[in-house]
Amino acid sequence: DAMKKIDDDISAFRSSLQISLKDRIEMLEDLHDAIEQDSFYFCYQPKVDFEGNLCGAEALIRWKHPVKGEVSPVEFIPIAEETGLIVPLGHNMFKKFCKVVKQVEDKQRGILMSYNLSGRQFLDPSLLDVLMGCIKEAGVSADSIELEITESTLMNDIESAVQVLKELTKHGFKVSIDDFGTGYSSLAYLKKLPIHTLKIDKSFVDDLLNDADDIAIISAITNMANALGLTTVAEGVEVEQQAEKLHELEIDMFQGYCFYKPLEESAFLALLK
Ligand code: C2E
Ligand code: MG
Ligand code: MG
Ligand code: MG
């Protein structure tokens, strides 16, 4: 019986391996096709201050698959990242992003538009040239653009990160550390990094109303951010009480379903004054 159980487990394991490998290969083929056919677009999720004023928005990539429908970036970004496809895809998407930034600049001043950079993109030697080329072509200013880079990407190779960030900020781009609190930042390095914003991870916001540890962590982060002159944003704010508590803890900006879900481009542009 025990042998039969092991045989069953092995056979289940073998087929799960095959399925996931098959799925991954299929996804990779689909990604290639989708890049060629340009099937990706951005939604824009607003960021607001405590009064609910629009401060900025984050571009979030979307893929409408011809058969599977909407595929989540949580599924395809890691595969694009591992295979390096993220570099050409990211270039193409940044061009689209800049066209929207242009419309935002023309309509309302002082709105900061955020674009997510993954690890491969961040360490790509042509990054700065690509970004500068796109902003020139669209006629927008780097000041209007914030690059969201995860804490784990930055901490992966801190010395290179400092060099790349210096170049980016020298040219006017703002930088936000995404998913902050999950990536084991060395606090000593935080001081060295030329960054503007700490974006506190949703995992600290989720349980904020029931968990004193999360409050203590957020409060430590905002104290440090204030001392270093950094702006703070909380992501994944779903209910009003969370926003109130976060405001009490001196968080500057809010993003989440409580205020806005990611919006189609036209719905986002319609919010501008
Ligand atoms: P992220 O940058 O941390 O983005 C936040 C994610 O949380 C988004 O999921 C957003 O839709 C979701 N979200 C926002 N507010 C709420 C809320 O109140 N409740 C809940 N439950 N979720 C909320 P999304 O769009 O699926 O993106 C997931 C991740 O994919 C992003 O995490 C980012 O790491 C990556 N990603 C998205 N777009 C791009 C892109 O253009 N380039 C790269 N490199 N990565 C991207
Ligand atoms: Mg982000
Ligand atoms: Mg985030
Ligand atoms: Mg996140």
From TrEMBL:
Span within the parent record: 407 to 679 of 679
Name of the protein described by the UniProt record: EAL domain-containing protein
Domain EAL, first and last residues per copy: 24-273
Signal peptide: none
